[in-house]
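Reviewers asked in the last cycle whether our approach scales beyond single polypeptides. To address this, we selected a multi-component target totalling 330 residues and predicted its structure end to end. The input consisted of the following lines:
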Amino acid sequence: MKERKIAVIGDPGSVMIFKAIGLDVYYEEQGPMIEKRIHKLADKGYAIIYITEEAAQLVPEAIDYYTTATFPAIIPIPSAKGSLGLGMKKLKGNVEKAVGADILFKEG
Amino acid sequence: MATQVNPTRMELTRLKKRLVTAVRGHKLLKDKRDEMVRQFMLHIRRNHALRLEVEKALQGVSTRFAMAKAQMGALRISEALLYPARAAVYEVGMKNVMSVDVPTITFTGGEEATEIPYAFTFTSSSLDNAVVELSALLPKLLELAEVEKTCNLLADEIEKTRRRVNALEYVMIPEMQTNIKFITMKLAENERASTVRLMKAKDMMAAQEAKAQAERAAKRAV
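The resulting structure, written as structure tokens, was:
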């Protein structure tokens, strides 16, 4: 099995702590740099890229580009400033895409 | 009818064969779609629960980390976290769910106490807590990534399959059925036309024959 790694992208305040558990951390806060970083990491064969929701908002195209590929899985996580609801929105989007209507989380 | 078809027997046989294939394909695709939706439902529920849990836990970690940063200063913190204590242990693979390749990411580390990657002299206890909490969260984070990616891929494939099913059900199959009906009717019409023509010809020949006989009989009488 090929060795695949996990990366975290975001501002230092939110993602620095991930270093302590052995993930590769990249500090990027500007749209073009984040995009470049995502493509670079995908080329290197990273399995998962956790990205803060704030950073994810800046590069929707880069994230959509990898939606249909098995790797990498780009997963938005809340930044230090709190959750923007982006992850949940994506989840609901998936339900709507698959079923045709949001039948699971109407209350949310 | 949208397209022009040749009303020939060959075309009819070809269309009938295609219709059988289309109907079978439609049934198979429909079954595939139903099973994928079932799988998707299982995964999306797990995804929802995990995301809620992870987001809440990460916020807790962030708060502690911010506290530690306030107590120690940004420079000290980055110094403390400069060197990772251990590599995260996990295995990455691939699994086939209804012909969709989805990733599997399994946490292979044990439950042992987390190693803190720094000495305790200059660090605050909030940082320790943040690190310990985050380590405990790692298996959940990995599972979230796996489940969320699976949901993404499945949703995409379900959409594609549904389009195919609908195209077959509402466009291809009805169109072929109309074409087959058109050809059968056209062929039957041709058949009738030629029968009628034959009957007409026979009548005309019979009439001619009768006329000739009548003439012969008249001649004999004279």
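The beta strands of chain A are 6-10, 24-27, 48-52, 73-77. We regard this as preliminary and will revisit it once experimental data from Aim 1 are available.
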